[in-house]
Specification:
The complex is a heterodimer. Chain A is mostly helical. Helix content of chain A is about 75%, strand content about 0%. Chain A has a single domain (about 60-290), classed as Orthogonal Bundle (MetI-like fold), CATH 1.10.3720. Chain B has a two-stranded antiparallel ribbon with strand order 1-2. Classes of the chains: A mainly alpha, B mainly alpha. At the A-B interface, α1, α3, α4, α5 and α6 of A face α1, α3, α4, α6 and α7 of B.
Chain lengths: ~290, ~290
């Protein structure tokens, strides 16, 4: 009897440290965030439950401006990096001299922290940065202010550039692995049957790599939509990306701004969760076909 | 004869290789992409290296007008904030790595070797932190950490770093155990080894490569955390990324550059050790999306 119970408890016991981290730290963090977003803040003596914070953020102009900026950053980074990643992976799949070195360089920045990439981008693209100096030497500009503002700018170009720098390689490595597992037989067959290069890519290769592309681009979107560091470092002050706005509200000296901050962070988490569910639904129907 | 055989019957060389000969538009496009990859990946590192040795480097000079080792002297001088931040970062990342290994081995074994009810739910729960932004979790849990005296402490920061690290460690260990044969343990047990000896002499050597890769992964993820440390550490626990942010904001480019180089050192070590694991077939590569 005891042996049977030990057998039954074995798997829950093995999982318990990992589940403790997930439930006690991660899930409780989310739940506490939700509680605080509805105004339940015992620390400053607030116990009533209200949706005021949500009503308030949905009537704030800076919230909508931050939201549209964040959606723009997420979409632009995801779409551009996915296209670039496919081009890079299709190239790196071919055989050519020096392929090993180029592939190594392509993977080089994958473990490099985003923050370091951001500082590199800052030194390169700021108005007195390296590229501006090159433009001066080439007589394209006469002073720093002639160089287009790519950092702290309205269109978040600097932020998008940093995300492209990291995520192109990330998605590219995944697509490359999928391509290598497929091999070139299907494509060869399509070509011998008279398909053009574009047709064999569009109708043979692309559908085969689509699941890999979808899953990595959803990860990229989820990351670029919710990340704080890069917009904090390379973004303009107003409007800022949504996670930065949430952080500023959270660290505001006025404790009444905290429920707003919580409502924003819950909003970010909900948007991402909904996206993941839609994605799972799509991939499931996609795989069934 | 299958369609495929029919298609290749008259062709001694498959078409994909025919395209390799001669210089066509395909070759030009390929070299453009290759040059683009090399320049695109490496370019941001160049100003980092140059700035760290510069003293005066005003617009529009392409190279510094005055070089100096000031930034590097500062980074390694005992009086600066850097050695302390380096110490904090290292201790936190090491403890987080050790804990994540202790968490990851049993959980990975359960996920990789066993089938049980609710496995999909457990999988979903364990993967959830890889998708939900850390800032949402950090802001939510801060209140509880303040209440239990964990805010502004080293222990609090270590605990909160376990959130982003655990999913990857469990994923890596679970893929290790999926290719592991528990039969060897049976044999050791029948030969009279107790569970502890069986683990030390049979299980541990077999899963060691996975532990090394997963451990390096955990170390780098913890090492790179910014917003979790900032919120939970409350400005008391100053790690390297926090220092890097404050220098980047202050506009001292040489020190920012030198600190960045110190900050990427573990990643470089990681690349050297694991370059052959970084093939993308490894599911755990997903972890780097969030660093």
């Amino acid at each position: 009897m005891i042996a049977l119970w030990r057998e039954r408890l074995r798997i829950p016991l093995m999982l318990s440290p990992a589940l403790a981290v997930i439930l006690v730290l991660f899930m409780s963090g989310l739940v506490l965030g939700m509680m605080q977003s509805v105004g339940y803040l015992p620390i400053i003596g607030r116990y009533e439950v209200t949706l005021d914070a949500y009503r308030k953020i949905f009537s704030r102009e800076d919230f909508y401006r931050s939201l549209s900026l964040t959606v723009w950053i997420g979409f632009a980074s995801t779409v551009l990096s996915t296209i670039l990643a496919i081009i890079c992976a299709m190239t790196l799949r071919q055989t050519f001299r020096g392929k090993r070195w180029v592939t190594f360089i392509f993977q080089l920045n994958i473990p490099i922290p985003h923050i370091v990439g951001a500082i590199g981008i800052l030194f390169l693209f700021s108005q007195s940065g390296f590229l501006a100096r090159l433009a001066y030497v080439a007589h394209i500009i006469n002073e720093p202010s002639d160089f287009p503002a790519l950092i702290y700018d309205r269109y978040a170009i600097g932020i998008i550039l940093e995300y492209l720098w990291k995520t192109t390689c990330f998605t590219g490595v995944i697509v490359l692995a999928v391509l290598q597992s497929i091999g070139e037989d299907y494509e060869d067959l399509a070509r011998t049957l008279g398909a053009s290069r574009w047709q064999s890519f569009r109708y043979v290769v692309l559908p085969l790599i689509m699941p890999g592309i979808l899953s990595s681009s959803i990860l990229v979107f989820a990351f670029t939509f919710g990340a704080f560091e890069i917009p904090y470092l390379l973004g303009q002050r107003y409007p800022s990306a949504l996670p930065v706005l949430a952080f500023r509200n959270y660290t505001d000296v006025d404790l009444n701004a905290r429920p707003d901050a919580m409502a924003m962070s819950v909003f970010i988490a909900v948007v991402i969760t909904v996206l993941i569910f839609i994605y799972m639904k799509i991939t499931r129907t996609y795989l069934r076909e | 004869m299958t369609l495929e055989q029919a298609a290749t019957r008259d062709l001694a060389i498959p078409p994909s290789q025919i395209a390799e000969t001669g210089w066509g538009w395909g070759q030009v496009a390929r070299w453009l992409v290759v040059v683009g990859i090399i320049v695109g990946v490496l370019l941001p590192f160049i100003p980092l290296a140059v700035w760290s040795f510069s003293h005066r480097w005003y617009f529009p000079a392409l190279i510094p007008t005055q070089w100096s080792m000031r930034a590097w002297h500062y980074v390694f001088s005992p009086g600066s904030q850097v050695p302390k931040a380096l110490g904090y970062s290292t201790v936190i990342a090491l403890v987080v790595t050790l804990l994540s290994i202790l968490i990851g081995i049993p959980a990975g074994r359960a996920m990789g070797l066993h089938r049980f009810r609710g496995k999909t739910l457990v999988e979903f729960l364990i993967l959830a932190p890889t998708i939900v932004p850390t800032i949402a979790v950090a802001m939510g849990i801060h209140v509880a950490f303040i209440k239990y005296g964990l805010a502004d402490t080293l222990l609090g920061v270590i605990l909160v770093h376990l959130i982003p690290v655990t999913p990857y460690m469990v994923m890596i260990m679970s893929s290790v155990f999926a290719n592991y044969d528990p039969e060897y343990e049976e044999q050791a047990r029948t030969l009279g080894a107790n569970p502890v000896r069986t683990f030390i002499y049979v299980t541990f050597p077999a899963i060691l490569p996975g532990i090394v890769v997963g451990g390096l992964f955990s170390f780098i993820i913890s090492w790179s955390q910014y917003v979790l440390t900032l919120l939970i550490g409350g400005g008391r626990v100053i790690t390297l990324p926090l220092l890097l942010f404050s220098f980047a904001g202050s506009g001292d480019n040489p020190i920012t550059a030198a600190l960045s180089i110190v900050f990427v050192a573990p990643a470089v070590i990681f690349l050297i050790v694991t370059s052959r694991y970084l093939t993308g077939e490894n599911a755990a590569i997903g972890g780097f999306g969030k660093i």
